[in-house]
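In the design runs reported in the main text, the only information available to the sequence generator was the tokenized backbone. The following block is the verbatim input for one such run; it is reproduced so that readers can re-run the procedure and compare outputs position by position.
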């Protein structure tokens, strides 16, 4: 067995499967509950099924992995030859995933550093990739953690949603903010700030909101070599158009990822989501 530092994350990182295999990254799935049925994100439920359920206003909830699931993952990774594990997860302000990982890490057969990145989606994915690159180069657990934390500190995530209702129902944004958006009939632009979802700007129409999102991304990426991810839920044409605009407006673009979010994030944002992650190298 090869001896190495292993990288573990969760399914909300939305890393492409081939990328995870290439870098040896393991993702622990969160759970989506439709009605009275539970499904593991990424393996047992499609985003199409989720979007249909949300549009019909069927009950949809999400839940963290159990500490036992993390413990089994850490044990399996250790058996593959890992001498240490860096476990990177979505913001603890949005999920109990980090807490479950911390509990499991106490009993792991090798040292585990659990990190609350304060991120989600490819904002988390880029952190996992940064840690994996250090580990592949022979770096220590501490060095991989430092790389992930540095990447998180410089990464920004912005997103547009058609309505704040899904975020309000899931408790991910305050009722007062959601009510304000509905009362004024505005289209909200949101950002991750301190690990929380915060209202960034209010724009009158969807087209103006998406144009403004493009402007914010271009401003944030100016003068830097950046990786960018464009996410969507049931809005592939919007995502493709935005990605094309990003390619022309960001001269320092290194990698551009375009993907549909999984069921966990989709359950809290609803169809029509359009998100952009800007992550300087």
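Verbatim output:
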């Amino acid at each position: 067995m090869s001896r190495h530092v292993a990288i573990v994350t969760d399914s909300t990182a939305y890393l492409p499967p081939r990328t995870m295999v290439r870098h040896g990254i393991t993702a622990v799935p969160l759970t989506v509950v439709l009605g009275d049925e539970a499904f593991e994100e990424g393996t047992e439920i499609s985003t199409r099924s989720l979007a249909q359920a949300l549009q019909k206003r069927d009950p949809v909830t999400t839940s963290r992995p159990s500490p036992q699931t993390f413990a089994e993952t850490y044990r399996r990774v250790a058996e593959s030859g890992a001498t240490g594990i860096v476990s990177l997860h979505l913001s603890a302000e949005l999920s109990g995933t980090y807490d479950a990982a911390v509990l499991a890490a106490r009993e792991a057969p090798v040292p585990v550093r659990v990190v609350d990145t304060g991120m989600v989606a490819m904002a988390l994915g880029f952190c996992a990739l940064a840690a994996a690159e250090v580990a592949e180069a022979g770096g220590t657990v501490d060095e991989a953690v430092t790389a992930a934390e540095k990447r998180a500190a410089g990464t920004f995530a912005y997103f547009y949603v058609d309505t704040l209702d899904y975020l309000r129902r899931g408790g991910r944004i305050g009722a007062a903010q959601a009510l304000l958006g509905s009362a004024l009939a505005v289209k909200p632009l949101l950002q991750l700030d301190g690990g929380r979802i915060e209202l960034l700007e209010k724009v009158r129409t969807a087209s103006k909101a998406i144009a403004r999102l493009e402007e914010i991304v271009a401003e944030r990426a100016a003068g830097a070599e950046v990786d960018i991810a464009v996410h969507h839920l049931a809005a592939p044409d919007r995502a493709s158009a935005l990605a094309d605009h990003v390619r022309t407006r960001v001269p320092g673009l290194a990698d551009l990822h375009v993907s549909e979010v999984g069921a966990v994030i989709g359950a809290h944002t609803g169809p029509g989501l359009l998100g952009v992650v800007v992550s300087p190298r």
